[in-house]
Amino acid sequence: MSGRRRWRDGTGVLRAAGRDAAVPVEIAATYGPRRRGLLGRDGIDGAMLLTPCNSVHTFRMRFSIDVAYLDRELRVIEIRTMGPGRLGRPRLRARHVLEAEAGAMAGWGLVTGARLTIETPGAAGPGPADR
To answer: Starting from the edge strand earliest in sequence, which strands make up the sheet with 10-16, in order?
Structure first.
């Protein structure tokens, strides 16, 4: 595996460098959970990480979402807010996508260039994916 982290479906805690906020995160790393994403929900407490992923859509979504495109080291490339029924264009450098309710990421202080970590139960320690 050459030093790359292998993500598994489950849960964890998201933290941004220099911020105190610990955000619960659901991890969707296999086809079924990634395909389902936030469809059929009325909201989310925290965030959802889709991996691997470089583009999302909001067709059949019930609420607006913030979308953060992340590179291999979990650095924020771009943040967008998408209303229902939208198609996001692929970001070529993105390896992961983080989704949350619209406005949540601003409340967490997330900005372009921020470095994130995701702590998962049983992991060797917190750190960026795919080093």
So the answer is: 76-82, 65-70, 96-101, 47-50, 22-28, 10-16, 116-119
